[in-house]
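[step 3/7] inverse_fold.run input=structure_tokens len=114
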């Protein structure tokens, strides 16, 4: 009953990390006092995307237009985005779809859309 070591001296606090769960995503991580995991501290645009991740609203809009065989410039025009923003959405779409090229993305989009 007496074997619990639950208290750290205040002096050691900064040096010791402890496992805790991120209050945003719930993942367990080594905390030095932060409440968010490394990933959640990273701006969203810099976070790695993985295959199967859900699409954002913007990505869904871009995907619909890709499926209609629009060029980046046309997609940018339709959605009032810059062309480089469209390219950013596309690269995340490629990652989430697990495809490399636009053709693969179109096929994937046809299956997924609607
Ligand atoms: Zn997190």
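[step 3/7] decode complete -> sequence:
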């Amino acid at each position: 009953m007496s074997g619990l070591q639950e208290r750290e001296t205040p002096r050691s606090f900064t040096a010791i990390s402890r496992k805790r769960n991120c209050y945003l995503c719930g993942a367990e991580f080594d905390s030095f006092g932060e409440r968010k995991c490394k990933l959640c501290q990273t701006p969203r645009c810099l976070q790695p995307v993985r295959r199967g991740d859900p699409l954002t609203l913007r990505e869904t809009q871009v995907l619909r237009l890709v499926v209609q065989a629009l060029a980046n410039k046309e997609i940018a025009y339709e959605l009032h985005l810059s062309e480089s923003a469209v390219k950013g959405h596309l690269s995340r779409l490629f990652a989430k779809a697990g495809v490399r090229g636009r053709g693969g993305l179109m096929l994937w989009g046809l299956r997924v859309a609607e």
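[step 4/7] annotate
The beta strands are 18-21, 28-31.
The CA atoms of residues 12 and 34 lie 16 Å apart.
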